[in-house]
Amino acid sequence: xxxxxxxxxxxxxxxxxxxxxxxxxxxxxxxxxxxxxxxxxxxxxxxxxxxxxxxxxxxxxxxxxxxxxxxxxxxxxxxxxxxxxxxxxxxxxxxxxxxxxxxxxxxxxxxxxxxxxxxxxxxxxxxxxxxxxxxxxxxxxxxxxxxxxxxxxxxxxxxxxxxxxxxxxxxxxxxxxxxxxxxxxxxxxxxxxxxxxxxxxxxxxxxxxxxxxxxxxxxxxxxxxxxxxxxxxxxxxxxxxxxxxxxxxxxxxxxxxxxxxxxxxxxxxxxxxxxxxxxxxxxxxxxxxxxxxxxxxxxxxxxxxxxxxxxxxxxxxxxxxxxxxxxxxxxxxxxxxxxxxx
Length: 342
What we know:
Blueprint: H1 16-30, H2 36-59, H3 62-67, H4 72-92, H5 103-112, H6 120-128, H7 133-159, H8 168-198, H9 200-225, H10 233-260, H11 265-275, H12 280-291, H13 295-327
Helix pairs in contact: 1-9, 2-8, 2-9, 4-7, 4-10, 4-11, 5-13, 6-7, 6-11, 6-13, 7-8, 7-11, 8-12, 9-12, 10-11, 10-13, 12-13
């Protein structure tokens, strides 16, 4: 693990990668892929998603994950926040349909609640706030692994009857496009792990480029299908309001709930930042497989929530850091910088 602490912009108005995602959406709106170009983009997107999850599997250090099992109460708490508390709040949001959210927007809102936690930003914010960074590394890794299996299963159970294109075939696609490449990466890690570590920066661009391709393909399909006529400024504002409430509830639940369970300050920081976030890197590829032509509306809530969580958690992390300085010097934390966006 690198001992260099990841740094976030002091003002953080907008994540640069979000700017790239917005630019990709604009490009898809102006020049959507259609006909043969759509077939080519779809095939490339499918291959990119499979390669992305192959890299996820090849990068995962099994030994590091096993070392973190000794802090099992913290990891179990993060998993419960991610895959139990979030989905329950997502289900409660069903009451917003149809007066606040359209059925398609609600499906995206619920899907946002099903994806795993982030790795990179959870580690960065935990480090800035002087929390338990090694635990954040393991918690993010465990959540990502669990999400590969749990997110499709939760989506099958909770979105199966939503009429948004999810079906049993989607589970098979998840297995072929996501699980098999992930397992293959784990099996080949012994031979290719060193190569990936040496070329981490270049492969990071591959990760991000793959996700941009997925976004372009999904939003192109949405433009061609004409589904964007469903999104009005009022509906977009309502979606933002629902997500503000969702994030506020999870930030409060993770902080005060961890205190109620007796975790110390460093662990509470880790639980708050790892348990209140959702991964754009994992969610976008999964949505492209699960929702098909409806993926553009399905990923919009996740994209908005991702940027919101970065901005809000940046403020919280700085405040926690100042609190720690006032209380006294904290023990030094170590960190690493994963290649993919969180």
